What does this fold into?
Amino acid sequence: MGTEIQLTAGDGGTFAGYLALPASLPAPGLVVLPEVFNTNDHIRSVADGYAEAGYVVIAPDIYWREEAGCYLPYTDEGRAKAQALRAAQGTDAFASDLGDVVAALKAREDCTGKVGVMGFCLGGKFTYLSSVRHAIDAAVSYYGVQIDEHLDEADALKCPILMHFASTDPHVPAETVAAIQARMGDWDSVDIHVYPNTEHGFNRYGYPPHDEAAAALARERTLAHLGRLLG
It folds into this structure.
């Protein structure tokens, strides 16, 4: 359904993004950020799904600075490679690149100018960072890792954020979710949900540990959140 486009970073570097368009244009924009496995076939299918829901979607190559075009499978080898790339990635560097993705999406003639950011796992962390560093209109983080390491930036929150967490998640343990809830949970602009009997990756349709009921409820909440804020 989608096509690959080229995006330009603030330092002049170029990188790929997967673009999926809705049937009716212009439409609000949505940046979709992947798990540590990068913008693989699953994440592209997620982008396609939100395009079908009425959004101009861009899912960028998050490792272009480390190894461009490295989109990884859900295998032991893929996981090992993903963790190596994640360890090498500069958080601030890609957070800056993400601002360039948002700007490129806003500037498209087929975009209304309203833009949200949604991400999973590592992408969930960058979604949070986008919500405090970039001028976006909505944010949705699925089991975002390491958000607690950046809670000192929470006061800079620029848009409402919806957060989905799994109840059993070694990558985002209960104490991490508790720290996020303690810092932001009572804010009107923050909506946090923990899904019982789920694991990290419960939204990953077609791959373990997908949980159909939790994924459906999270998507329903996500679409309501995006629809209210992006139109």
